[in-house]
Each structure stands twice: as C-alpha cells, then as structure tokens.
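agent> Task received from the user: take the single chain below, predict its 3D structure, and emit structure tokens. No templates, no multimer pairing.
agent> Plan: (1) validate residues, (2) run structure prediction, (3) serialize to tokens, (4) report one or two observations.
agent> Step 1 OK, no nonstandard residues flagged.
tool_call: predict_structure(input=
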Amino acid sequence: MSTPLSPAPALRFGVNYTPRRGWFHAWHDFDPGRVREDLAQIAGLGLDHVRVFHLWPLLQPNRTLVRASAVDQLVRLVDLAAECGLDVLVDGVQGHLSSFDFYPEWTRSWHHRNVFTDPEAIEAQALLLRTLGRALSGHPHLIGLQLGNELNNLVAHNPVTVAEVDHYLDTLLAAARDGLGEGGGLVTHSAYDDAWYGDDHPFTPEASARKGDLTTVHPWVFSANCAGRYGPRSPQVHHLAEYGTELATAYATDPDRPVWVQETGAPEPHIPAADAPDFARATLLNAAGCDRLWGVTWWCSHDVDRALADFPELEYTLGLFDSTGRPKPIAEALSTTATEIRTTTAPPTPRTTALVLDCAPATRSVSGPGGAFFDTWTRLRQEGVRPAVVLAERAEDTAYLAARGITELIEGK
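)
tool_result: status=success, residues=413
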C-alpha cells in the first residue's frame, strides 16, 4: 500500500476579475449587487483570491485630484470580496487593460506628459498609490497593492530608458509602501513578456525580479507566437508558466524570492476551446512543481460581452464564465485541479539541475519561445529533467547554488 502524499504548501489559486456586465466600464455605474453576484460565482469554484482593476481616468481625472468616491468604490469591492471569502490584490494605475489604454486627460493632447519620465506625472501616480494604500491599509482580506497592470505596454507612446524605468518603479513602489504602511500587504509591479524576452526592452528582467516584494510573470501563449510555433497541445505550451517561473527565479538576487504566475489564460484561437481544459490543468500542475511558486491567477473571470465593440477576438472568450454567467468547461478544470494540488500533491523539491543562461540585454530573445535557450530547456523537460535556470554570472557562486539546491549545471544552447 502506498504512503499518502503530504499536502503541498499553501499555494494560492485565483482569477483576475472582469465584471460580467459592462466590462471595466462598469465602474461608471458601480453596482454592488452585480459585483457580489460575480464574486460569489468565483468563490464557488473554490478559488481564494481575485486581482482587481479600477480605471486611472476615473480615479484621478486631474493631476492633483484623486476622487474619494472612486476610491470608495474600490474599497467597497474589496469588502464584497471578503464577504465571499476572497482575498484581493488591487492594481493602481490602469493604464492598460485588454488591448485598451486608459490615460487621464491631463496626460494627453497639448497637456501631454510622458508618464514614465515627467516628474509631475510620476508624483501624480505616487499620490494615487499613496491614497489607495491608505484607504485599503488594514483590510484583513487585502493581499497588497500593485503599481498597475503591465505598465510596460505604455512604452510605445512614452519613450523611456532602463535607468528611467528603474527610477519610476522605485518611486512608485516606495509610494505604495508608504500608503499601506509596513506590514500592510505586498507591494508589487507587473510587466508583459517583452520584459523577459524583448531585446532592448526598457523594462528588464532584473527590474521584474528584484523590485517589489515578489516577482510577477504573465506567461501568455501568444508571446513570441509560442502556441503558433509549437502547437496548442505541445509541451512548450503546457510548460510555459513553469518555465516562466524558473526563468524569473534565475534573475532574482534573493534565492528564496517567490514568483507569482499572475496572468495566464487560454486565448482562442491560440488554444482552441476544446483544448482549454487540458491546457489549464497542465499549466497548474506543471507550475506547481516550482518550489518558489506563490500561486497562479487565471485571466480572466468572465467573457467580454459581444455587445461591446472593438476588442481583439481573443478577448471575448478568455473567461471562466461566459457573458451570461454560465461556467465553461475550463472553469471546472481549473477548480478541480487547484483542489487536487492543494490536497494531494507533495511539496515540490528543489531542482538540482540547472541550465545556464548567458544572454546580454540585447539578446534576451534567446530565452523566449523560438530561442535556443528556451528550446533546450523544454527539450530537457521532455526528457524527464526538471531544469532550473541559472544566470551565467552566478554559475560559479557556490553559496548561491547551494542555497537553491543546485548540484549540476548544464550549459545552455
């Protein structure tokens, strides 16, 4: 008779909340009853947290004005989530959501200010984050405060250097911490995959992995055409979130720094609907094998209603629930797999073998889908190896390797 597996550490499983009625335009007509209904559906899947987004123009219509009523809406949503037993991460500067950019008018037209470099624009965002932090501080169901959703999506219209990004992030992280107070919750930031795979992108892997209280990754299967290149059922796709977690761990200076798979999903047609449940199950199970994993947060809770125009096609079908509120097969797959991991999966052991990554900032793409390093890592994974990732600059640091439990190094190709 086999010995039962011990429970895994308390991994977190949740979803990014998209209001079913009206998408994020619902903030214009905030309805607590509808929000409660959406959140109760999410809690019914056995998920434990949501990530939520207000809209920057509604929160801060003037550079020196943060609307108290809009902040109160956000606090009310956190309260409603708590009533459903859900913890909450709040994103502050939106910024960017589902292919749309949201700028307050004081950053546009002849008022234009570069949101990353203009000192007054940076201070305005710091004001917003301090205000949100103070309003939310002490809430027992608050996970923390994130600067905003994938702020690096805004670089096309706001040119910025690596040094300027570092200053921007440091300033806003300090403001968020000042608002929450010490012990008030996590302070984080997020970036889409160009930060990891994009040659010369001004948001760097080092910034993602070394600033804030933990590292967030958003391993989307359309990044670098991963699903198109390898196929929607491929090991490369099914292990992408696991790979992203290990890549992020390599860039951290703290070997114990947690990594949060904060966005991943099954976008059609990259992942056909019939394959979505298997993709969700494989993604969670493979990521759960990373010993630095904090948790996984799916994108997203509810489909975008097709009555709303001009979204990219894939945005309409990313939800766990359809636009009428019915759970989709992927919802059941996510729910049952999360329960299985929580209750029957053994805690992951450290990865003793690591693949050495040697890439200068201008050659980051080798570590992304289609790159030589990525292909070597996934080949090893298919052969039964559980490879970690180590930067070449740390390959001879015996204390660091020992702290991560690494005993064998393989040169990346």
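agent> Step 4: summary for the user.
The first helix runs from residue 32 to 44.
agent> Done.
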